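Lab notebook: predicted structure, single chain.

Context: the supervisor wants predicted structures on file for every construct in the current expression panel, including those that have not yet been purified. This is the next one on the list. No modifications to the sequence; it matches the entry in the shared construct table.
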Amino acid sequence: MPGFSVGKKERKMGIRCSPTVALHFTDCSVPATQRLGEEGEGFKIAMRTLDMTAADDGAMAVGIGQAALDAAPPTRRSGSSSASRSPRSRASSSCSDMAMQVPRARLMVHHAARQVDAGILGNTFEASMAKCWGR
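Prediction complete. Output recorded below exactly as produced.
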């Protein structure tokens, strides 16, 4: 389509299975027959799409968090009861926090995904929470 081009594929640190590119629109005219919805409805359509995909983003983050926990040595996951500020105790505390965070995020992702599966529109709050807690 004249005026439309796709930018270069970005090099990312993670989640490389999902390519990221810039889309460039320069004096690009889209015929009414190729619109996704009615004129002026683009923002609403984009937000509905984000409501469906935010739970996916949260699920990917939960998977990454779970893999990090699984890879951590058991001594790091147990935490420390002392108030020590040593690097080792801070790392153990971080792993303990993550060990509590991952199941909580997983439950939020499941809840948001159930809403998407049920066709519930307007689950922006739940989908956003799932994405946020998964990070």
